[in-house]
Request: fold
Amino acid sequence: MEGVRLPRLMISAPQKSSGKTIVSLGILYYLRSKGISVRSFKKGPDFIDPMWHKVASGNECYNLDPYLTGANVCLELFLKHSIHEKNALSLIEGNHGLHDGVSLDGSDSSAGLAETLKTPVLLVVDSRKINRGIAALVMGIQAMPPHVILAGVILNQVRGQRQVDKQKQAIEEYCKVPVLGAIPIDEELVIPERHLGLTTVEETVNASKFIQGAAERLMHYCDMNAINSLFYQAPPLPLYHTEARASRFSPVVKIGVFRDAAFCFYYPDNLNALRDQGAELVFIDSFHESLLPDVDALYLGGGFPELFFEALCANKVLLREVRERVESGLPLYAECGGLIYLSRGALYEGKQYALTGILPLDIGFQQRPAGHGYLDLRSNRESAWFRKDTQIRAHEFHYATPLMTSGNCSYQFDVLRGYGVTGKRDGVLYRNLFASFAHLHAAGNPEWAETFVSLAAQFKATGDIV
Reply:
């Protein structure tokens, strides 16, 4: 087994909403502005933070989630996306608190991922309402397993120099970790939060200017040279030689992907997995394109379609096109927002909207999430998409639930953990359509892309799925 040096650093925090995304964006933009090649990764099932990362770094941001894919697959994905440019820096932003996770041993936490990737951690600490006691917090981070390489601390939301001095002296004396910056409270340097975290890049005016402002704040209040050096403290990683998974099919097919402000939640690895199996992806703007292109399947991802119901419903030709294609047998895979779009209608903020009408569901929206967190599912039947007894891990975050169902719905999955569509079932089946509130990751479900492309190939060859 060989070892490979890949400069890398994780940005994390003791708890969520401590400022790690702002720090991550600032570092990414700063490095890019200095002509340093940098890529980024986001721990967890997040879709929104990676959009911001991409703007800051100029490169795609990939998700790493030990719960969805397992630790070894996270390592493989990190190597896959890093190894082709060994001199580039890799920044990994953690999610929630450093040690937060599902498992008691923390193996699926950001700390667990840092341990798997042997990655130094730069800790962003919210300095409000504490003084020298902040050292006890950092010491707890150091003592809690999984143990990480704690390489530095940034103090965030500090109120004055006296507080900075007390906290810095305590951390460096008792924890033996350098404090590399102290960022004052700034009410303007906050990305608004909604639903699953931050608002999307498309919803934020002057997103690039905001990121540039974050970088300028870091440059003024942090030791950027010292932070840059932390990437090179990472030890070599084992380089596994793995063979590519053989595909049962090698078709050339076209899969239409709704991709716009309403449907923007796609894991880059999912899209790449479809390409690797022989699919050409044709991106479709659901606001402005009335006629579907000549495709062999459709992929409708998640997002916030409820914010754009007026525009989506105004495009009646596309609604009809999707409905007619599904009725003709076109394979269609839909996640969350895609499921909503395929429903009969939706009630949002007191107004009723007519949607495609493919699924016999009327969708409503709650004040609190109906499903929030990881979702464990077990297939209760054979279908074109999944075999019986297949178990998958996915993620859900939705305020939407069916208000009414008319007619029978066939469901692919029983819910073992989470909510899904009904609280007990998820994965609506109709003809060659599958629609779910679950977001799965292709790396944790390697047969997904293979099945998707094979169904598209069968439809292309026969006009339906036999």
